[in-house]
Design goal:
By secondary structure, this protein is α+β, with helices and mostly antiparallel strands. Helices cover 36% and strands 25% of the residues.
Length: 494
């Protein structure tokens, strides 16, 4: 048994559902579209819950803005970055706003649009394999949830949008496939009635010696917490969060976090980076969404890139009169490849570069992280520029490079000009009150007095300059090592 379609989409997540709806709105000849999904039950994920302002704009362009209605979505007006008890406000420019929500509710809203779309069949089935004839993919074999036999679904064009754990990525891309790199894991929990430092703003907490912590409200009473954990992941995640992470977070979050950890398990999700690769290896099939291109979720840019890709690709596909003509399709893929670069490259590079800085693994990156925070404290364009990049409002790799290396040089300048913490011996007289030792009941000195040094702030002296100059060179080199390879993954086209 087989069914024939014009376009077959594997995966009814963000990208797949949005594309099915977009293609149904085509001004060209009506197309028959199949959207296959293993389970149409509400998905339950800990990421994909914050849509940046540019993503909201693409949702409007696709006619899918109603997917944000009726799901208790929260307006997001920017970020608050927290470090060592200090907070810097980073608002979106010009009153722009994003949305945060429960991932599953948003996906179900997109699926509803696909189900109602003209010419779209939404089918609950598990795709088992691709069907090939004469070197061309002509469809898939899948098993419906209501049956046991494999069924062939044929189409002129097959689009694989089955997510970060794609089963078909290597088959479709062949030798051009690029390996994914898992940077860390996000460990997630939902806090109840938590008070964030700034309402309706995402919170990024920088934790010394560990990855960043991301928090944002996803409904009236729920706040998502994502703790970045580098490998190897501790066996007892709850203990790790309470002992290593909690002390660095704002005090008003301590009790909600303890309550959340007591009430539910900590779930985790790999944070992977997969640069895009040209899709010319296998005719009749292409990849879309996380199956093709992933970035670190710290910046919340994944859904924005996916919706942008759907919009650009659907616009070009609308002009193709014969989906079997692969020469026309190669032209579409080439145009899509270059047209998506501005936004996708900016968000891809920023996600990994910002994670490396906020993760601060080592002395040079710690200097970079401190400088980045101080750069934000300057306000003005030092905030507007970076947040415009983060939100997708200003898709420009040149602007990203400008701010990234400005932060690097500003970090170096701060090394010489700003006071820094140093350890100083605690004088014996400071361990006494009015010259009398503070004795405990058993005749010992009070525990606090056992500390032999204290922290003071001091501007570096000229004697520190040689060491700081060498450190500055290493910081600048680190900036180049971070940014250069990331830029290369985006500009190469082979």
């Amino acid at each position: 048994m087989s069914s024939q379609y014009d376009v077959l989409i594997v995966g009814a997540g963000i990208a797949g559902s949005a594309l099915a709806h977009a293609l149904s709105q085509s001004s060209a000849l009506p197309r028959r579209i199949a959207l296959l999904e293993r389970s149409l039950a509400e998905p339950d994920r800990i990421v994909g819950e914050l849509l940046q302002p540019a993503g909201v704009a693409f949702l409007d362009k696709l006619g899918l803005q109603d997917a944000l209605e009726g799901i208790d979505a929260i307006p997001v007006h920017g970020y608050a970055v927290v470090q060592d008890g200090r907070i810097v406000h980073i608002p979106y420019p010009d009153g722009r706003e994003g949305r945060s929500f429960h991932h599953g509710l948003f996906v179900q809203g997109l699926r509803e649009h696909a189900i109602r779309a003209k010419g779209v069949d939404v089918i609950e089935a598990t795709v088992n394999e691709l069907v090939e004839e004469e070197g061309r993919v002509v469809g898939v074999k899948a098993t419906r949830s209501s049956g046991k036999e494999k069924e062939v679904f044929r189409a002129d064009l097959t689009i694989i949008a089955d997510g970060c754990f794609s089963n078909f990525r290597s088959i479709v891309q062949g030798p051009s496939a690029r390996p994914s790199n898992t940077k860390s894991h996000f460990c997630g929990a939902i806090l109840k009635d938590a008070q964030l430092p700034i309402s309706q703003h995402g919170t990024v907490a920088l934790v010394r010696g560990h990855g960043p912590v991301l928090l944002y409200q996803i409904s009236e009473h729920d706040t998502r917490m994502l703790v970045d954990v580098k490998g190897p992941v501790p066996s007892d995640l709850k203990k790790h969060i309470i002992t290593e992470i909690l002390p660095s977070l704002p005090n008003q979050l301590h009790e909600p976090i303890r309550a959340a950890l007591s009430a539910d398990r900590v779930r985790r999700m790999p944070n992977s980076f997969l640069p895009p690769a040209p899709q010319t290896h296998k005719r009749g099939v292409i990849l879309l969404g996380d199956a093709w291109n992933m970035r670190h979720p710290l910046t919340g840019g994944g859904m924005t890139v996916a919706l942008s890709d759907v919009y650009i690709f659907s616009q070009h596909l609308d002009k193709v009169n014969d989906l079997l003509d692969w020469s026309q399709m190669k032209g579409v893929l080439d145009k899509w490849w270059w047209e998506r670069k501005g936004l996708a490259a900016t968000i891809n590079i920023l996600s990994i570069a910002l994670y490396d800085v906020f993760g601060a693994d080592g002395e040079c990156l710690t200097v970079f992280q401190d400088g980045c925070f101080k750069y934000f404290e300057r306000g003005g364009e030092s905030v507007r520029g970076p947040v415009s990049l983060l939100s997708g409002i200003a898709p420009s790799t040149s602007l990203l490079a400008y701010h990234f290396f400005f932060v690097a040089f500003y970090s170096i300048w701060a090394l010489f000009a700003h006071p820094r913490h140093i350890h100083a011996p605690r004088a014996n007289s400071e361990s006494h009150t009015n010259g009398t030792p503070d004795m405990t009941g058993n005749g010992g000195v009070h525990p606090d007095e056992k500390r032999s040094d204290m922290h003071i702030m001091q501007i570096p002296s000229i004697l520190d300059y040689p060491r700081l100059f060498w450190l500055s060179c290493r910081v600048l080199w680190t900036a180049c090592v971070i940014f250069g390879p990331l830029l290369w993954t985006e500009i190469r086209w082979w």
